[in-house]
Specification:
heterotrimer; A alpha+beta; B alpha+beta; C alpha/beta; A: alpha+beta; 4 strands; globular; C: alpha/beta; Rossmann fold; two-stranded antiparallel ribbon; 5 helices; about 15% strand; binds iron/sulfur cluster
């Protein structure tokens, strides 16, 4: 497992340079609440045909900064992005809320109490 | 005037085992657009894993994410926690865990094949495969004590041992099953009406499989060589006769064939496991509290299952991230629907073997 | 009439709905319909159509989004109907109890006649539950067929014809 830190503004450029569809399998977008309004966002990749090769790009951010969307590079990222929109209440451009939660149900369950 | 019509499928439908709602945008019989609502069974397991349950209990909670691949869920979680505790299971435990995972794969694949047959209008074949599947369910019940949701794996080992009688039963049933599977392979290959429903229908090309990150049997049917069993070193799969099954056409027929041949491969692996079962304890002490971050990938029947567990040395974990196979396969599935006939939609859907309980958690 | 009594028990058609279960109980329902346990020998058929069903098999603790569908399906089944809650989580919420998107059991939304325990409940239990459900169904259909006495007694109060008790309300004659 390799963890690479990046920032939200350079994310698209970094992943664009790194991601080759035939080499890397995009696993998921993940968010981890760090408390006090901070969140760690992770983009996880694994290599095809290589043992135990996982690369995680991560960003330390907060809940108010909009997150760039990776859909232009990786079309299947839309599911993970819609999920973090629902679960953490982040804004990702192009990803609508409502994958799991309805308007009137509990909002952003994984977001920590700040 | 609008040229297209919208046809809904679901959320409750005879061909669906679980609630999912599709909105097909159709032009005459052709589907040109799909919209899916997959969140009907969202329960909130991820939050409960970190708020309501201690890390020792979570293994049994995540098993309830999905009943079909419950064992892979508890296995991935357990592996992740064991990594954090710095515990490595002995060979007997590893073999027993693998045995249950492979048995689970066999019965899950058979359920999917039965479902595809039913949705192609072949009710008798559905019944036949469901009947053959009971052979595996019997083995599972005898080994673990329950047919589904057997909570076989716990942190530090497995909960029941394999006795010589069980080995004999497993051998007998696997033998019976492998004859039946051979007959099924012939049937799926040669039956004319099945081939009309399956061949060339619902095609996912290799390019699309790469672009949309397809996984599991869906990807292998399109020729994309990805299988977590070959990409991780947690279990000695290669030593036990694992081979990757690949097809190239990417249609329903290919997906059925990947499943059938994987069943054959899994039967061979199960036989190898019970013949070469090492001696050792089945339950060991794994001490400590999970501290740090661990990722685990396990090949579930539908593809790659991913767990990320982060703990900070307490009884409660900080984060349990569950990424299930169907969840990431949905964009690829949507792609397959486009251009297909509406009448084929239930059969195509069944051939993906979607698992909504997994997707929505 | 004794001769006809066995035939009055009908072959119940079931409607199955997953209201947020983990699939475990759903596949056990499928297995119960399959050849080994063979519910179909009793005439039980899984229909996808609520309007043709008698028994409503529900699994799952009712998630927030599926609750409307659950009630909708229930109300579309014609009377008499029987609701069977399959699995622990359907009865009480089970392992999902208290999760944020879960409503803790289907009896918060629709009346349940038979509860099946177990996580996952075994096909044998599901068959037992359906047999139990048949009894309930029979009782309910008898209840429906019972004619209500619409006209009450004609009474005279103080030598005058009284219309006070001439028509009875539904359920007023339940005791007799
Ligand atoms: S009772 Fe258990 S096995 Fe059945 S649906 Fe609920 S969680 Fe799954």
């Amino acid at each position: 497992m390799k963890k690479i830190e990046t920032t939200l503004s350079t994310l698209l450029r970094d992943i664009g340079a790194f991601y080759i569809p035939k080499l890397w399998h995009f696993l998921s977008v993940n968010g981890i609440d760090l408390g006090e309004g901070k969140i760690e966002l992770q983009w996880i990749f694994s290599a095809y045909g290589v043992k135990d090769e996982i690369v995680i790009y991560y960003v330390l951010s907060d809940y108010n900064t909009p997150v760039p969307s990776l859909v232009s590079l990786i079309p299947s990222a839309i599911m993970g992005e819609r999920e973090i929109v629902d679960m953490f209440g982040l804004t990702v451009d192009g990803a609508e809320s409502g994958l799991y939660l309805d308007e009137d149900s509990r909002t952003h369950p994984l977001r920590g109490e700040s | 005037m609008k040229k297209t019509i919208q046809i809904p499928l679901g959320s409750q439908h005879i061909s669906l085992l679980e609630p999912i709602r599709f909105k097909f945008e159709c032009e005459n019989e052709k589907i040109i657009g799909v919209d899916a609502d997959v969140g009907f069974v969202h329960r909130g397991v991820e939050l409960a894993c970190t708020r309501s349950f201690e890390f020792k209990q979570v293994g049994y909670v995540v098993a309830r994410v999905c009943g079909l691949c419950a064992i892979t869920h508890s296995l991935s979680y357990t592996l992740a926690v064991e990594k954090l505790l710095g515990y490595v299971a002995n060979d007997r435990i590893k073999y027993l865990r693998m045995l249950m995972v492979e048995l689970d794969r066999i019965h899950s694949h058979m359920l999917c094949l039965a479902h595809t047959a039913e949705n192609a209008g072949f009710e008798a074949l559905f019944m036949q495969i469901m009947g053959d599947r009971e052979l595996i369910m019997d083995v599972q019940e005898a080994i673990s004590g329950n047919r589904v949701q057997f909570d076989y794996i716990s942190i530090g080992g497995v909960n029941r041992d394999l006795t010589p009688e069980l080995v004999a039963l497993t051998h007998k049933n696997l033998g019976l099953l492998s004859e039946k599977i051979d007959a099924l392979i012939g049937l799926f290959d040669n039956n004319w009406s099945l081939s009309l429903k399956y061949k060339g229908v619902g095609v996912l090309s290799l390019e699309e499989a790469y672009t949309y990150n397809a996984l599991g049997p869906l990807a292998r049917a399109a020729g994309l060589a990805t299988d977590v069993r070959a990409e991780t070193s947690d279990f000695p799969y290669e030593a036990l006769g694992y081979t990757m099954i690949l097809e190239s056409t990417g249609d329903i027929h290919a997906r059925n064939f990947v499943r059938l041949r994987e069943i054959v491969n899994s039967i061979a692996m199960c036989r190898n496991i019970i013949e070469n079962l090492p001696i050792g304890e089945i339950q060991e002490k794994a001490k400590g509290k999970p501290n740090g971050e661990a990722v685990v990938r396990v090949e579930a029947p539908r593809g790659e299952l991913f767990y990320l567990v982060r703990g900070s040395g307490q009884n409660m974990l900080d984060r349990v991230r569950i990424k299930t196979p169907t969840f990431s396969a949905i964009p690829a599935m949507m792609e397959v629907f486009k251009g297909a006939e509406y009448a084929d939609a239930p059969a195509i859907l069944a051939s993906f073997d979607p698992c909504m309980s997994c997707t929505a958690k | 009439m004794k001769f006809f009594t066995p035939f009055r028990k009908k072959s119940p058609w079931v409607l199955h709905y997953n209201a947020g279960s983990c699939n475990g109980c759903d596949i056990e329902i499928l297995a119960a319909l399959g050849p080994k346990f063979d519910l179909e020998r009793f005439g039980v058929i899984n229909t996808g159509n609520p309007k043709q069903s008698d028994i409503f098999l529900v699994t799952g603790p009712v998630t927030y989004r599926s609750r409307e569908r659950l009630v909708e399906l229930y109300s579309q089944i014609p009377e008499p109907k029987v609701v069977v809650a399959v699995g622990s989580c359907t009865a009480t919420g089970g392992v999902f109890r208290g999760m944020y998107n879960v409503e803790d059991g289907i009896d918060r939304y629709i009346p349940v006649d038979v509860y099946v325990p177990g996580c996952a409940s075994s096909p044998q239990l599901i068959i037992d539950a359906l047999v139990k459900g048949l009894e309930v169904l029979e009782a309910k259909s008898k209840e429906i067929e019972k004619p209500y006495k619409l006209f009450g007694a004609i009474e005279t109060i103080a030598n005058k014809l009284s219309r006070l008790n001439m028509a009875t309300k539904v359920g007023q004659n339940e005791k007799d």
